[in-house]
Structure formats: C-alpha cells, structure tokens
Amino acid sequence: MPKVGLIYNDIKPVATGAAQMLRDRLESLGHEVCMATGAAGILGYSQPGKPVCHTPVDSLVPPGFDEDMEFAVVFGGDGTVLSAFRQVAPKGIPLLAVNTGHMGFITEIYLSQLDKAIDQLLANQYQVEERSMIIVKLYSHDMVMWEALCMNEMVIQRQPLTSMCHFEVQVGNHSPVDIAADGIIISTPTGSTAYSLSAGGPVIAPGVPVLQLIPICPHSLASRGLVFPNCEPITIDSVNPDSLVMVVDGNAGCYVEPTDRVYVERSPYNARFVRLKPPEFFRVLREKLGWGLPHIAKPTSVELP
C-alpha cells in the first residue's frame, strides 16, 4: 500500500481542513496516510537558569514517516515548511509545500492548485530539487547542550539591553578572526533571501555549494560578509561577559553563555522539494521580492503648470 505523509499548521483552520480533505481523498484511493502537525518540528526556546534540553536532530521524525513514504505534503506558510523539513529531512522524504500563509517564498503551490498537483504526484510527474541544510550545535565544556537542523540561517546576537558583542570566528582550519557587531548570521543559499538579505548579504542561487557569514551592524568597515565552501565547518566563541541569544530558522533557540561554543556544519540531510515543473529561482525572486523588474525611466523633462 503506497504511503503518503501530511503535515499541517494546526493553528490555522484552513490548513487543518485542507489536510483532512486530502487525507480522505488519498485513503479512498488506497493510500496509507500518516498525519503530523508542524509544531513537532519547532524546538522552542530554552529559558535562562534552566537546563537546556538536548533534542537530537534525527529524533523529530513523526511516527510512520520513514523511507517507504513516497512523498509528503505540508500545509502552511514558510515557518511551517521550515519546521516540516526539520521533521522529514532525516528520512529523505520529498515534500510538496502548499501555501496557506502569507508570502510563501519557499512553497510550491497555492491551495487552489492542490487537486491538479496531487494528480501529478500520483502520476509520478514531478521532480525533486535538493537544498543543503546545516546542523547547529551548542557546546558547553565539550558537551552538546542543544542542537538543531536548519535550512535558512543561524543567528547569534546580543540581548536587547546589552552592548555590542565580540565574536571569535573560525572557518575550517583557517586562522580565527575577531568580529565586533550586534550579531552574526550563518546562512545557507536558501536562507540568503531571508534574514541575511535584510542584513546586506548577497542572494545566492540554491545550487551553489557555499555558506555565508554576515555580521549584523558591524562596528568596523573591515567586517564584511563572507562566502565560503559549505564543506568547511564554523566555530563561534563569544568573547563577552554577558549571555547571548541564538535563534535557528526563526522558531527555535537557546542562550549562549560566555564559556559556550557554537559549532555549525553542513548537514548530511538535504531538504528535498517536490517541483511540479522545472525550478525557476529567478522567477520566484521576481514574483516574491520584485528582483529584476523592468526599470521605468523618469521623463527627461517636466512641464511646469
């Protein structure tokens, strides 16, 4: 019996209703359907003064989601899609992202296109696009205290009432460098259109095998963004008397104490997107972010009244 997975944002009635309707349709066609909420992939935030909960990245896979699953469908916005990939990437399950949120930058279709999309999936008329991910780990005295699977970016930054921070950053086996800034972003190519873009980083096409480091409001003109091969890990030490905050993909995070160390490396798991037509990254940039729209020239002369 073919197996299909459904992941949905359970706080949105539209997403919940759509998932239930698709479940009924697939079961009527003889498919085994496994359902899960996107909340299971949201790791949450640790609290100051409490032990950090270490949740291994491969322990978030929902029951029934395994290598025998042909594909899964996620209903929600970009945040739910990020959470869903944290759940299914360890099993290599291709994921069709259906937008029931707002921008939906990394979703594939809108809800109105679902019926036709499912017909294509069942007829095996689709492609799979792989996107790289990273694993972020927090070490305290050589012990892993917190970790997360990340598709967009990792951000380590100062708390609101603290001053500018100093970071000692080492990429691969290269010499460490000191960065004075409000924070640091480590981004994948997929995340290059998210927070790092707002912080002045470049847009990187999804297939380029790199990561990028973007300082947030750096104190020196010498502290610019850096693009480097994704085969090189990154180690970040906080050279500050105060604790910092680390956030992964905007929906999980922990506190980083002065003696802690953050380690980032490319994940062995890729995010596998279901594509119903050949991927067109520049078209998405144009439609979602307005990149490359035709320039409308100003008139050469203006007649005054």
Question: In short, what is this structure?
Answer:
By secondary structure, the chain is α+β, with helices and mostly antiparallel strands.
Structure report:
The strands form four sheets. A seven-stranded mixed beta sheet has the order 3-18-17-10-13-14-15, with no helix packed on it. Strands 9-8-19-16-11-12 form a six-stranded antiparallel beta sheet, with no helix packed on it. It has a five-stranded parallel beta sheet with strand order 2-1-4-5-6, sandwiched between helices. It is globular. Helices cover 16% and strands 36% of the residues. The chain folds into two domains: 3-132 and 269-289, 3-Layer(aba) Sandwich (Rossmann fold); 134-266, Probable inorganic polyphosphate/atp-NAD kinase, domain 2 (Tumour Suppressor Smad4), CATH 2.60.200.30. The model has no long low-confidence stretch (mean pLDDT 89). 39% of the residues are buried. α1 (13-28) links the parallel β1 and β2 (32-37). With 305 residues, it is α+β, with helices and mostly antiparallel strands. Belongs to the NAD kinase family. NAD(+) binds at residues 78-79, 152-153, 182, 193-198, 251. Pfam families: NAD_kinase, NAD_kinase_C. It is found in: Cytoplasm. The active site is at 78 (proton acceptor).
